[in-house]
Amino acid sequence: MALRLMTSMILIVGLASCSKKTSSKNASKATGWNVDSKKAGANKKQQAGPGLVFVEGGTFTMGKVQDDVMHDWNNTPTQQHVQSFYMDETEVTNFMYLEYLDWLKKVYPPTDENYKNIYEGASPDTLVWRNRLGYNETMTNNYLRHPSYQEYPVVGVNWIQAVEFSNWRTQRVNEALLEKNGYLKKDAKTNDVSAESNFDTETYLNSPTLAYGGNEEIVLKGKKGARKAPKAGKDGVATEEKNVYAQRSSGILLPEYRLPTEAEWEYAAAADVGQREYNIYKGQKKYPWSGEYTRSGKRQTKGDQLANFKQGNGDYGGIAGWSDDGADITNEVKKYPANDFGLYDMAGNVAEWVADVYRPVIDNEANDFNYFRGNLYTKNKIGKDGKIEVITKDNIKYDTLSNGRIVARNLPGQIAQVPVDEQETYLRQNFDKSNNINYRDGDKQSTRYFDFGGSESDTEKQKQDKLMYNSPKHNVTTDSLGKMVRKYDKSSKRTTLINDEVRVYKGGSWRDRAYWLDPAQRRYFPQDMATDYIGFRCAMSRVGPKAEKRKSARN
After folding, report:
1. How far apart are CA 179 and CA 184, in angstroms?
2. CB 3.0 to 4.6 Å from 424: which of 279, 326, 420, 522, for a disulfide?
């Protein structure tokens, strides 16, 4: 009996050991096949990009203000859910923006006729500081470039420039990550970069051999370019290895830097997480900090202002001394306490651009998840040769803004984009066209004059008469000599300033009363114009799990 038992145990152990030998940690749970073990080392957890802090998403009441003395009627409270994301700890500073300008000046020299409008189009408008009845030349001449202001938020930047800065930042961060992981030659980003040879994330992902002008000494195959040459097969022919470049599946590259949506910005600024008790919020905050007052109630800082803003007529800081808020214009970032997400200056300092096109109503009946109005769906342009079309110095597109400034629509090295067409929209239920800015608000179908099922043969004038927002339509161009040609809309029938080129900006600034410090307040401004009180900060989407840390139940 003992012998039989011992024999059975030996068989069980033997079978178990055989099972371990035949199984593999890389075996697919779907097919049992061994999968590529090289992906086992991919970065599964997204790391926060430079300057960013994590904001865990959640549900909140958007548009709920305590006061509406302006009677704007543009803040109907709606319940929204925001996914987790990352946001800049501070506003983008002069130093950060100057780094961008220096890079543009080096790569696209303004002295070159092909690139003369790139640097100029990205430069902030320093004349925003001028006032007809005020002496502000000190800021006009010094605010952007003087070292004393390098950690102050950049101003004079319009919405379009803020978007282009965010795009540039994406490329530089991902370029550095690829270099760190051995996929790009060390220091190529500073020593070898030029207008004809530079890096773009989407270009690299779609066709790595087109990055850096196809220079194989810079764009390396495998980690540090140490990928071994392929061995010849039985037929004597060597098969080229695949996946020798970094891909999205490598987990190295970060999602793009971008402007936050209005919902993200308001959620992050309110930081209601600091008032959470179990699964409810203990009331709605009036400001990004707890309490009904703009001064600190803590013993160590009692009486200190929690933001810089205009406290009354002619009062931009208070009486000099301990009660002063420390600033009359903007202030150095991080001079006031952070909110419960660790974000600084979400009230005061400068108001901030967000991504959304302005509309008076937030349409939560259409969507209450990651709400955003402004989607323009595009796809990569395919050339006649069947390959993606990459922008070169010969096909850069420029736009003339309403103030006559010329800005580059795209830069060399980027992939040209075109609107999505019926190939992507046919029989889709979630979208049916490229431009979705006017969905349910602003298009013909949104007006009270729309005749459902009626004739679609209206003339262009009839269509314009039926638009929801009858704003002025100015036309500003430049002639062959570079002179501005202005054609103003002088119609007396215009009833609004709202159109598809006005963007939301959030938060109070150094010029605003405390009323505007409420995170739910919202205003709009033309996307191609700049001021001395609007700046911006960047955001980045979160991929993967909603929370950073594993949560435990509360007992």
Report:
1. 4
2. 420
Residue 537 DSSP code:
-
| Tokens (6 digits) for 111 | 């002295």
DSSP 139-200: HHHHTTT-GGGTTSBP-S--HHHHHHHHHHHHHHHHHHHHHHTTSB-TTHHHHT-BTTB---
Angstrom distance (rounded) from CA 274 to CA 269: 11
Q: How many CA atoms lie within 13 A of 159 on its CB side?
A: 23
pTM: 0.89
419, 435 contact by CB (below 8 A): yes
Encode pLDDT of 30-39 as tens digits.
Answer: 777 776 655 5
Specify whether the CB–CB gap between 160 and 410 falls below 8 A: no
Give per-residue pLDDT as tens, 393-447. 888 888 888 888 889 988 999 999 999 999 999 999 999 999 999 998 887 777 7
- Helix, coil or strand: residue 84: coil
* Residue 87 phi, psi dihedral angles, 5° rounding: -140, 150
250 CA to centre of own chain: 22
CA-to-CA separations, 112 to 117, 118, 351, 478, in angstroms, rounded: 10, 10, 36, 19
Token pair 């108001």 is found at 351
Q: How many CB atoms lie within 10 A of CB 213?
A: 18
Can you tell me the distance from the alpha carbon of 479 to that of 365, in angstroms, rounded to the nearest whole number?
46
Could you give the CA distance from residue 157 to residue 126 in angstroms, rounded to a whole number? 9
Which amino acid, 162? Answer: A
User: Tell me, what's the pLDDT at 257?
Assistant: 97
Q: Cα angle at 358 between 471 and 478, to 5 degrees?
A: 55
Strands 58-62 and 78-82: antiparallel
CA distance 288 to 250: 38
User: Which has the closest alpha carbon to 57: 543, 507, 519?
Assistant: 543
Question: What whole-number distance in Å separates Cα of residue 118 and Cα of residue 412?
Answer: 11
